[in-house]
Amino acid sequence: MFRAVxxxxxxxxxxxxxxxxxxxxxxxxxxxxxxxxxxxxxxxRKTYSVxxxxxxxxxxxxxxxxxxxxxxxAVDDLSIVVNPGEVTGFLGPNGAGKTTTLKMLSGLLYPTGxxxxxxxxxxxxxxxxxxxxxxLVMGQRNQLAWDIPATDSxxxxxxxxxxxxxxxxxxxxxxxxxxxxxxxxxxxxxxxxLGERMKCEIAVSLLHQPKVLFLDEPTIGLDVTxxxxxxxxxxxxxxxxxxxxxxxxxxxxxxxxxxxxxIVIHHGKLLFDGDLxxxxxxxxxxxxxxxxxxxGSDRIGDLVDGIGEVMRSEDGRVTIRVPKSDTARLTERVLxxxxxxxxxxxxxxxxxxxxxxxxxxxxxxxxxxxxxxREHQSQ
Length: 379
What we know:
Blueprint (H helix, E strand, L loop, with lengths): L4 E3 L25 E3 L3 E14 L4 H9 L2 E15 L4 E5 L6 H8 L7 E6 L9 H4 L2 E5 L11 H12 L3 H15 L14 H12 L6 E5 L7 H18 L2 E5 L3 H7 L2 E6 L2 E7 H8 L2 E8 L6 H5 L4 E6 L2 E7 L3 H11 L2 E7 L3 H17 L2 H10 L1
Parallel strand pairs: 5-9, 5-10, 7-8, 8-9
Antiparallel strand pairs: 1-2, 3-4, 3-6, 10-11, 12-14, 12-15, 13-14
Helix pairs in contact: 4-6
């Protein structure tokens, strides 16, 4: 069952309710306020029954009489809570269940099991009050009419959501300013580039000023400049309107720029839920040292031997992977022994961390318990 968490200031200012976090503006001795998470999922499941048959004509004929199926668990016992105003990264490899989850959250798919609440509503009921407060943007799906100008699609969206014209004009002016849409509005959508179309897709999805944004790979296929513009816009929209954002992306730059919290799933199961920095800390026990030398790069192997691993060395620039516990010792040794021009110590790229998360999950799924222990010790 979903819980109603009441925020009741006690004497001395202590709060009984700790999870989910309460609005700090309510910690003033006023009447109790019920805090409703923007998104709450409890033991969510979605299972598809998929036909299976052997190749060939005879197999096709047999399947007409007796069809064999197998169950695909797209989402399997998933439980998460997202609080109002959060920008949360929702990560996983292809086929992990991200898009299926977003479709259930927006009411496009009915769950096989478990419970879902978005802004207190049950998404599968598709109530008008619910639909007016959410939006789903999918980078690989179009909602703009292909042969008419984007501004006509905007007007259609206004009519569907019954947005009062003065409010529509204010919102549209804000979106045009933030996304630099002015020159795009009179053009037929088919004449827009991918990046221009994506900006218009996002704009039309926000004309009714939703409180919850489900963004499924909004920067897919875009160039670096356009990706940066979309990221800047999402951050600014969240700051201005306090909207809750659940973002899926395979571009880790999106996640690093926008999300303090990340949720990682694989095969429909939850692998990690926490701060992005905690993800790096948990799944990457190494630091990356990048050293620029005047000379002596041929000696770096002897200095690193037994402590770290030289990943790359060319033109006096050396990259070393070293366990976090040995970073200070190796840095001191290099600085004392070689003519160093520059030295940086960094966490590994987030892409490498995510890849390691999935690698660990595959080991956990396929290996016996003693192998899990050996893998943990080797890390």
